[in-house]
Amino acid sequence: MFRAIQTLFGVTIVGFLLLPIVAILPLAFTSSVFLTYPIEDYSLRWFTELATADAWRLSIMNSLIIGLGATLLSTVLGTLAALGMRSEVLPLASLLRTVFLLPMVVPAVVLGVGMQMLFVNFGLASTYPGVIVAHAVLCVPFVIVSVSASLQGIDRAVEKAASSLGASPVTVFHRVTFPLALPGIISGAVFAFATSLDEVVITLFVAGPNQRTLARQMFSSIRENISPTVVAAALLLIIGTLCLAGLAAALRWRQERNALRAAP
Amino acid sequence: MQPFIQFEAVSKSFGAHTVIDSLDLTIQQGEFLSLLGPSGSGKTTILMMLAGFERPTRGTITLEGTRIDQLPPHRREMGVVFQNYALFPHMTVAENVAFPLEMKKLPRAEIATKVERALDMVRLGQLKNRRPSQLSGGQQQRVALTRALVFEPRVILMDEPLGALDKQLREHMQLEIRELHKRLGLTIVFVTHDQSEALTMSDRIAVFNGGRIEQIDSPFVIYDTPRTRFVAQFIGETNLIEADVVNVQGGRATIALSDDLVAQVDAAPELAKGQKAWFSLRPERMRLGADPAGDNALTMTIADCIYHGDHMRVQLAQGQFTFTARCERLAGDWKVGAPVVVSFDPRDCTVLAP
């Protein structure tokens, strides 16, 4: 009895989370210009629209440029931060960690307003570097969390062994620490890219018309003219995100399996 | 002869906590030295200072006359075998073993030959393309050992390397390491808390307690003539009882465990009449039954008799004392509650200053 209620509750919650997505996605394939059921005829015209209309094409390009830029920047910075906070000699490590993770909890609106004001002073407002930096701030916490976790899984004795076998600290890093942390770095980068891809709020504040990203374009086109192109774009985003999430999960699974096996 | 490794007045503190206090220790070339002690006695700290992972707070460490205590680990040429093996999980067995040779920048062909030969020596040639995670504990242990030996370091340091293995494998590895030590003339410093391991393998044992060396001697001397109460208790099993020295005469002493329990023992030179002392007697040195051939024959009561397969353990009571004796399984039929005559040779007792 209790078990049945449990199952029912679970199914309800999953349905609540998934139904809105499932309900709208078929409309990407409608031939009508309205977002309404029933679908009378199926077509790929909205995907064609996505690929050919300048506004949509530009926004997809922008999302890729900004996403890759923010991923690169945040992965480098986040990895360095995670490495730095690992050493016990740093007395403020735990305080620093809190500061680095702050963008996860600070309301995006607050960050957006602050960055806009700051970027105007630096001439970064409405520029690609500006948007990339803004996104990177949001992405860094994900990289730090992921890389820290994988660094924690590295047995210090392995690094000690390397140095006793004649490896200098630099060699220990690039032959032992880095390869062992790599799955965490890659999965951090995946999270960073996914975060940048669906970021809207901060983009609204710091991006100009030329840096309109896919998410931002969807947001405005919903308000201006509701066309099934938005749903086609959403489908694209969901598929992209699922692929990335799958990649991250696969990497994590592999790492956990290795860690499990390495334990004596 | 110049000592190979020398610790001079080495101290190590972590904050206010002193782990090693002014320690002197010399290690000879080709020696197998065990550092034995309970956990927290400082033995691992000594090893870590030798390997370079810890720096002494005070004092100097020299290797062949050269100071090494400030050198970083990668300049010390010491092969370290860690408790959990510390193999590189992302490299194959062959890559693990090749690592120290690559660090020495040897030519590729020479590395390949050396790795091949080293792995064959420990019968791991078949497994060279496996990852450490695909090996058993004993195989991982052998890889760790090979990796530490292959670059011909000046000293091999081992930190409880056999702790994670089961008993049978551990005994096998003990013999294997001992064999390697003899064959290659290695200098080995071996940290362990397992006294039987230390007795089996070592040329000398340093018994640590509270950051100091209680005694450093060959296994025979450590076992047969412990110099302190701690050593007597920590190595092997012993009956240890506080006694009064009643008389000292010509190398023999008479000691009283209680009013009616008096024993003759070989006296240490520093023993004086009227002193308190600790009397130590190994269970296997006690003989039960008739034929009191020695100078000591005491009558005790059998309190319990425990069967151990290859031997019997007999608990003996006398007044407020309990003794444990170890006897042959077939030596006699001991009845609980019966009186029995216990005899032992004065040479087999040790009397220790309090």
UniProtKB/TrEMBL annotation, chain A:
Endoplasmic reticulum among keywords: no
Main location: membrane
Transmembrane segments: 7-39, 59-83, 95-119, 131-151, 172-194, 230-251
ABC transmembrane type-1 domain segment(s): 60-248
Topology of the protein relative to the lipid bilayer: Multi-pass membrane protein
Entry's localization field: Cell inner membrane; Cell membrane
Any single Gene Ontology cellular-component annotation: plasma membrane
Entry keyword set: Cell inner membrane, Cell membrane, Membrane, Transmembrane, Transmembrane helix, Transport
Pfam families for this protein: BPD_transp_1
Domain of life where this protein originates: Bacteria
CDD domains xrefs: TM_PBP2
Gene Ontology process terms (BP): transmembrane transport
Gene3D superfamilies linked to this entry: MetI-like
PANTHER family: INNER MEMBRANE ABC TRANSPORTER PERMEASE PROTEIN YDCV
Family membership noted in the UniProt record: Belongs to the binding-protein-dependent transport system permease family.
Protein name: Polyamine ABC transporter permease
UniProtKB/TrEMBL annotation, chain B:
Keywords, in A-Z order: ATP-binding, Cell membrane, Membrane, Nucleotide-binding, Translocase, Transport
Pfam families, A to Z: ABC_tran, TOBE_2
Domain of life, per lineage: Bacteria
CDD domains: ABC_PotA_N
Domain ABC transporter: 5-235
GO molecular function, one term: ATP binding
UniProt EC number: 7.6.2.11
Gene3D superfamilies per record: 2.40.50.100, P-loop containing nucleotide triphosphate hydrolases
InterPro entries: AAA+_ATPase, ABC_SmlMolc_Importer, ABC_transporter-like_ATP-bd, Mo/tungstate-bd_C_term_dom, P-loop_NTPase, PotA-like, PotA_ATP-bd, Transp-assoc_OB_typ2
Catalytic activity annotation: ATP + H2O + polyamine-[polyamine-binding protein]Side 1 = ADP + phosphate + polyamineSide 2 + [polyamine-binding protein]Side 1
GO cellular component, one term: ATP-binding cassette (ABC) transporter complex
NCBIfam families: potA (TIGR01187)
Assembly description: The complex is composed of two ATP-binding proteins (PotA), two transmembrane proteins (PotB and PotC) and a solute-binding protein (PotD).
Family note: Belongs to the ABC transporter superfamily. Spermidine/putrescine importer (TC 3.A.1.11.1) family.
Role, per record: Part of the ABC transporter complex PotABCD involved in spermidine/putrescine import. Responsible for energy coupling to the transport system.
Protein name: Spermidine/putrescine import ATP-binding protein PotA
Species of the source: Microvirga aerophila
Source organism phylogeny: Bacteria, Pseudomonadati, Pseudomonadota, Alphaproteobacteria, Hyphomicrobiales
